[in-house]
Amino acid sequence: PAHEVWQMATAHGAKAMGLDGVTGSLDVGKSADLVAIDLDVPTPITSHNLLDQLILWRDAVDVHSVMVAGKWLKQNYVVLNADPEALIAKTREAAERLWVTP
């Protein structure tokens, strides 16, 4: 199932939104959106369990770097060009709107 989740989050998700011509896979001419995840973990990581490790066992704290449309938004665990505290506050406000019953 991890392979299916990966496909849904990348190629299939882009296709469902009509964006498969610009994103969803690593191809020349497509948007350069990348996430680098720290895989320095005690369990062995192989080609057979890589997607399981990425999807099931990694968390936000493991995100090393993020590139969106060819621009680095996070490098070496540091958010660039943004106030992390303001981002956390906005995220909390959005979560409250989602979870609080009117």
Structure commentary:
The chain has helices at 2-9, 11-16, 50-57, 84-99, and strands spanning 34-37, 63-68, 71-75, 78-79. By secondary structure, it is an alpha+beta fold. It has a single domain (2-99), classed as Urease, subunit C, domain 1 (Roll). Strand 2 and strand 3 (71-75) form a beta hairpin. Helix 1 packs across helix 3 (50-57). It starts with a helix and ends with a helix.
| Total helical segments | 4
The topology string of helices and strands comes to HHEHEEEH
* Number of strand segments: 4
Per CATH, the architecture is Roll
| Count of distinct structural domains | 1
Quaternary organisation of the protein chains: single chain
What percentage of amino acids are in beta strands?
15-25%
CATH topology: Urease, subunit C, domain 1
Strand order of the largest sheet: 1-2-3-4
Biggest β-sheet: count, sense, barrel?
Answer: 4 strands, antiparallel
Q: Tell me, what's the shape?
A: globular
CATH class: Mainly Beta
Spatial separation of the terminal alpha carbons: 36 Å
Helix content: 25-40%
Low-pLDDT regions? none
Task: Give me the Rg, rounded.
Answer: 16 Å
Alpha-beta classification = alpha+beta
Overall average pLDDT: 91
Secondary structure layout:
Elements: H1 2-9, H2 11-16, E1 34-37, H3 50-57, E2 63-68, E3 71-75, E4 78-79, H4 84-99
Antiparallel strand pairs: 1-2, 2-3, 3-4
Helix pairs in contact: 1-3
